[in-house]
Design goal:
Elements lengths: L2 E8 L3 E5 L3 E6 L2 E3 L19 E5 L2 E5 L1 H6 L3 E2 L4 H20 L5 E8 L4 H12 L1 E3 L1 E4 L5 E3 L2 E10 L2 H8 L10 H4 L1 E7 L4 E7 L2 E10 L3 H16 L8 H7 L1 E4 L2 E4 L1 H22 L8 E5 L3 H8 L19 H14 L9 E2 L5
Parallel strand pairs: 1-8, 3-19, 8-12, 13-18
Antiparallel strand pairs: 1-2, 2-3, 4-6, 4-7, 5-6, 5-10, 9-12, 10-11, 13-14, 14-15, 16-17
């Protein structure tokens, strides 16, 4: 039986996962697995991550894009307790259905927002540990059983994933000693929450750590409220991603320019995050550098960086910031369990949408 190290970042907006070779990203939505009477792809073939249909514990689910487009009843939440109880296992198993082979033994690293870490880490670990009876159905309804065992689980404070990603190479060796030797402040902008933590020579500082509900969903909610006023349509938050990235949305045949609304919403969100940084880190005036990370970090960085006092680590415009934590989880797992490097070069199996 093979032992694979897998990192999974189960977020309110997206679930991200990697085994060091393949990377998967999908929206954290699931729904009933309804019958699809017409399964043929009319034009180009759908990518594998667009068809996540799993059977878990005797129930059948559509996950991610498939649930968004095909399920009559869809589940999406910003409530942390409900997310752990009703979403986390389904999202993690959907990821493992793509990254693990039948009868694999998996050592898994995941994370939790700072404010929920102590309360939920044992519960989350318990949900993921052990033997799981998992199956997938492809776009042609062909069923594949994937029994697997999650042998070990490490749950760490979410922002530390980005630190491990910065300080370690793909062989889990220390490649940048600055992040191990300095006092680092991390601002991890997620979908529902923004996490703040201070790592002093890799030691977690509880005083400077916390979470707030200042994630990108807050900006999306501001934009959606304006759209509701203008059109009478209440746009679901998870449908705002592509529209905001595109700069426009079409509602009932009318194209609406979102750029002014986005500018206003992101500016307000950045001000709120900067204010929380000033409050939390008032006594940490000796921070050497600040790292802005997370799926929302890249889009918020241009608004946020001018408001932060101190040296801010430049955001790499060529990297997908959503993957910073999960790549760090995987590297940390490689380091902890001292697994051998995998020779297969990484290939991308994820949608950037």
């Amino acid at each position: 039986m093979r032992v694979n190290v897998v990192g999974i970042d189960i977020g309110f907006g997206f679930t991200k996962a990697t085994n060091g070779r393949d990377t998967l990203v999908f929206k954290s939505i699931f729904g009933e697995a309804s019958d699809i009477p017409f399964r043929e792809q009319l034009l180009s073939a759908a990518s594998p991550e667009e068809h996540l249909h799993i059977e878990l514990d005797g129930e059948s689910f559509f996950v991610g894009e498939l649930a968004e487009h095909q399920s009559h009843v869809r589940s999406f939440t910003l409530d942390q307790n409900q997310f752990i109880t009703n979403f986390a296992k389904t999202m993690a198993m959907a990821a493992l259905s793509r990254l693990a082979s039948p009868n694999d033994s998996v050592n898994l690293v995941t994370g939790l927002p700072v404010s929920f870490y102590r309360r939920h880490r044992e519960e989350l670990s318990g949900l993921l540990l052990g033997r799981h009876t998992l199956a997938t159905l492809d776009a042609n309804a062909n069923r594949r059983e994937i029994p697997l065992t999650v042998n070990q689980v490490r749950v760490i404070p979410q922002p530390f994933g980005s630190l491990f990603n910065l300080m370690m190479g793909d062989s889990a060796e220390l490649t940048d000693k600055r992040f191990a030797e300095e006092k680092i402040g991390v601002v991890d902008v997620g979908f529902r929450t923004t996490d703040y933590t201070v790592s002093d020579k890799t030691k977690y500082s509880g005083r400077g750590s916390g979470s707030s509900e200042s994630g990108i969903a807050r900006a999306f909610a501001m934009i959606a409220a304006k759209l509701l006023e203008q059109t009478g349509v209440d746009v679901e938050l998870y449908r705002m991603y592509d529209a905001v990235a595109r700069g426009s949305i079409k509602i009932r045949g009318k194209t609406i320019d979102l750029r002014p609304l986005t500018e206003e919403a992101f500016s307000k969100l950045a001000s709120a995050v900067a204010g929380e940084v000033d409050r939390l880190w008032a006594d940490d005036w000796d921070i050497d550098r600040i790292v802005v990370t997370g799926g929302g970090g890249a889009v918020l960085a241009p608004y946020l960086q001018p408001l932060l006092s101190g040296e801010v680590q430049p955001v790499d415009p060529t990297a997908d910031s959503r993957l910073n934590n999960v790549r760090g989880y995987w590297k940390y797992g490689r380091n902890v369990w001292n697994t051998q490097p995998q020779a297969v070069p990484e290939r991308r199996a994820a949608s950037d949408s």
